[in-house]
Structures are given as structure tokens and as C-alpha cells.
Amino acid sequence: PAAKESILPLEGALAYSVSQNLCPSPFQLVVERVHDLLYLRTMSALMAETGLKGLDPRWSLTPLGGAVNIPLFATLTGSQAQGAQAFLLESRPDLPASLAGEKRLLTYGQFTESEEAGIEDLFDPDLYLGLINALYADALNRPLSESKSLTAEEC
Predict the structure, then answer these.
(1) Nearest to residue 64, comparing CAs of 42, 86, 96?
(2) What order of strands is seen across the sheet that includes strand 59-63?
(3) At the N or C end, where does the chain have fewer CB atoms within 10 A?
(4) pTM value?
């Protein structure tokens, strides 16, 4: 096995290389999780297919793996972010003082009537429930509705 001292420069070079490739586009929209990326890409494509305006293709979407990774990501990409960079999150996390006033941190609640919201809250409730009911039709004893949620026994 290699000595710890000989590995350290290689680890540093690898970390530098990775950080240089975190921003493949000058327009970076960072989301918390992979499902956020999938929803946004799918809905944007569906909007474009129907003649509505979707996300500008210049924007690169990057899942971050949770809001806890914002300080590290912002530090690694801060010096190389040449265009626009925004973070779209479920809620505003506790951040270090250096990022606390960050205006690029957006929450789904800013686009809905709920202070605590996830990406699913951007959809019309009837549309979303219709999708869930269609997807889980075989597993549900009765369709979900906005007025009444199912108990564990009903699922």
C-alpha cells in the first residue's frame, strides 16, 4: 500500500478536478434531490411539447443530495461560477453566516401558498392526485382525494 503522504497530493488533484467540472454550464440550477431534477426536466419538456415555455435549455440542473451540501458546493463552485447560479430547495436551511443572506437560495414555498413546500406542491392537487391514483391503482383500496387521506389500513 502507498504511504499516506504520497496519496494526499493525488487526493488534492482529484478534488480540484472534480470541483472544476461541477459547473458544466454558466447557468446552474441546483436542486436538493434527483427527483426534483426529474420532475423539473419532465414538466419542462411537457410544457415545451404543448407550446408553453419550459426551462431555458442553457440551464444545467444539478442534484445536490440535500441542503446540507450547499456550503461545500458554493465554496467549490463560487470562484468559477461565471453566469447565474441558483439553489431551489424545500426550505431555507441553517447556513453559515457567509451564506445566510444569500439571494440565490429559492424555496418552493416562494412559488406556492405554503411556507413549507416541496416540488410536488407546484402541481395542481387534482393533477398530482390523478397521477398518484393512476400509478398506484392496483395497490390502493380506493383513490386518494384532497379532502380525505388514507389510513395505513386502507393502503
Answers:
(1) 86
(2) 59-63, 27-31, 84-89, 105-107
(3) N
(4) 0.68
